[in-house]
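Re: weekly structure request thread

Next one in the queue (458 aa):
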Amino acid sequence: MLTERRRPSLAVRVTAICLVVAGVMAVVAGLISTRLVVSTAADLTRQTMSDQADVIAGELSDSRLGIRRAVEILRGQGISVVQRQRNGSLVSADPAAVRAARQAGIDRVTTSSPLHASVEIDGDSLLVEARSVEDQTAFALVRKAAVARGTGRALVGNIIFALGIGLIVAAIAGLLLARRLSRPLRHTASVAASMTTGRRDIRAPVEGPREVADVARSINDLADALHRSESRQREFLLSVSHELRTPLTAVKGFAESLADGVVTGPEVPGVARVIDQEANRLDRLVSDLLDLARLGAADFRLDLTDVDLNALVADASRVWQSRCESAGQVFRMDLPMETLVTHTDPRRLRQVLDGLAENAVRVTPAGRPVVLSLSPAPGAAVLQIRDGGPGLSEEDYRMAFARGALHSRYEGTRPVGTGIGLALVHGLVTRMGGTVQAGPAPEGGASFTVTLPAHPHF
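Done, posted below.
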């Protein structure tokens, strides 16, 4: 099995991203800047030559500056001077400049039509500025464009140096930013790792940017939720252990009495009945636990068929009417005129009704009512088990179906079950495509309402 390749840290990734972004920006800015600098340098050189040509033309017109003096001044600046004589001949110490002036069209220059041109001579790009002094004479200033490009290269070099400094600054800034971001994340990861070992007493520091702080806050909320859930599970296991121990103790005690011969003669059938009752109690408890554990599994089976709800409620009512009469309670059944049919598992639905009815009978005092009702709703059937017991608080109604919640709350103050009955009811009704809700009953106690999709059957 191949081991997972070590992934780069957040600090490395953020630094790399900053460098890549800065590098792309540097390349784009460099390309744009180079083009602008080179073209600007050439334009500035051409403009300078044009201004020089205009000045020399004015000086020559006023006869205050001889052409020889102009040639000496401009030669030191890398500019060649070409003079057009009255007879049309071109005179210059630089043959390439003569060729450039002729190719640029110095012959066509007049006082009203100066010349601005760029020509190629022997692979060199030359800038030409020509002016006419009189109608018969003219001169041209010729300079290699490479001089302008050299100025541009110098400027580009400075820009590249500045961009390199920018890349270094971006790398440092990215590293500092990455460390600032990764520090709270490392703390949060450390807390999460500690939680996997079972610790619930540590919390992640809520610091850093909003998103990082949200992660830490979520981890802390998860730790609180796990603590509450595990505490509830421990309480639930303790209550189930207690419920299991009680019938086991009775079974074991009576079985030992039979084995030791303490119970003999006519007392044996009574002891046997107690053992049978406690064994059945154990069987129901274990069955409920198994059903609750299997509810979330994909292989939990429902045997679906069309169910006559009126008949199912009537059958259940006969059993619970007898139980209520034995406890001195008043039992009432309400059925609609029309027959309601739903597509569900009749055994599981009866298990739901029996579980809710058993809770109602357990908490209802003698003389108070227990009601089992069925009523139609648009596209649904509503099953209700209501009682005249002490009822629950608003908070209790909201958490009634949480596993073991009511058991831990009321143990010692009123009769309670194992703490799994209502949780099992909720799971079964949900798997059957229905809903179950808890609320106050008009009889003064609690009401548990099961709603299933159904239709009238005529």
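The longest strand covers residues 124-132. The chain has three domains: 11-152, 223-294, 305-457.
Next request, please.
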